[in-house]
Specification:
The chain is an all-alpha fold and about 150 residues long. The chain is rod-shaped. It has a domain of about 50 residues.
């Protein structure tokens, strides 16, 4: 790590021990107003004081642990669902679907029941017929209005 990116040029020649005892304005991101606020609120005057401030130590530990924590089951499930949705939306990542002669079939005909109910077509037809028999179709269509075919 290049310390020159962390500290102001005036402090570049100091040893680590001397830097720790330097005022917090030795840090490149610390303004005089920020240093004054730290001194007033937390009694922090040096780089060492800042590093030893309990809330800074706790925040550092929490952040380090958070970066290493595995995702929760809910986060994992959400990520899996997103990955699957992207794959269904953009199947071109599947080498077979790039071939113009191959059509993506969600329910293969050889799957039990697949030849009778491809992507729930049978349920849709049954629901439409039921609605027509009883005066209204599902989905708010008027009686006698057939469902649109895709």
């Amino acid at each position: 790590m290049n310390l020159k990116t962390l500290i102001n040029d005036d402090y570049a020649e100091l040893s680590m021990r001397a830097l720790a005892g330097a005022p917090v304005t030795a840090l490149r991101s610390m303004s005089a107003d920020g240093a004054e606020a730290l001194a007033r609120v937390f009694a922090v005057h040096t780089v060492r004081d800042l590093a030893r401030l309990d809330c800074v130590k706790w925040a550092t530990v929490i952040t380090a642990l958070a970066d290493e924590e595995p995702p929760t089951p809910v986060e994992q499930a959400r990520e899996t669902l997103i990955d699957e949705a992207v794959e269904m939306t953009f199947p071109a990542s599947d080498p077979l679907s790039v071939d113009a002669g191959v059509t993506r079939i969600e329910v293969a005909p050889e799957v039990v029941g697949g030849h009778d109910d491809h992507q729930h077509a049978g349920q849709v037809e049954e629901s439409t017929a039921h609605g027509l028999r009883h005066g209204t179709a599902t989905g708010g269509r008027a009686a006698g209005t057939p469902a649109r075919s895709h």
